[in-house]
Write a structure and sequence with these properties.
With 161 residues, this protein is mainly alpha-helical. It is built from three helices and no strands.
Length: 161
């Protein structure tokens, strides 16, 4: 805060008041605190609005998926669609119909869509820990005899290496 003396009216001897007063500084500080608090509140508000928009979009996607599944369910309730799927997927025939299978020169059926899908083999059952522990006890009880091996070459001053 600097004050400058300016000559006032002659004989008054007044000086110019400082530009920043204590009240002005307090007012500026209060305004800064209000701006910061409102800015953080505004930021939280905007983040919440964005989250609401994301949730609404997700709800719309799930409603579309539900609608598609309901439509698919209604299709499966139709006997004509059900019969066509049984023919296409499993090669079923209606009573009185004769089915034909076209074979290539190797005797393999042409067209891969008429057979049943291959069943994957069941995964192997994992070995329980107690089975592994008991197996190690059994192995320790009957050690294998080690075959006598030839003595290893000795490397030394007279070996030529």
């Amino acid at each position: 805060m600097t004050t400058t003396r300016r000559p006032g009216p002659p004989g008054t001897g007044r000086t110019e008041r400082p530009r920043v007063t204590g009240r002005g500084a307090v007012l500026a500080l209060v305004l800064a605190v209000l701006v910061v608090s409102y800015a953080s509140s505004l930021r939280a508000y905007l983040v919440q609005r964005e989250h609401i928009a994301d949730v609404k979009a997700e709800i719309l996607q799930r409603q579309d998926a539900i609608t598609a599944l309901e439509r698919e369910q209604r299709r499966w309730e139709d006997p004509v669609y059900l019969a066509s799927q049984a023919r296409a997927r499993f090669g079923y025939l209606m009573p009185g119909e004769t089915g034909f299978q076209v074979l290539d020169e190797d005797g393999e059926p042409l067209g891969a869509g008429n057979g049943l899908p291959d069943v994957e083999p069941e995964p192997e059952r994992p070995t329980a820990w107690w089975e592994t522990a008991w197996e190690s006890v059994e192995i320790a009880g009957r050690p294998e005899r080690l075959e006598e091996k030839e003595p290893a070459e000795q490397i030394g001053p007279g070996s030529g290496r």
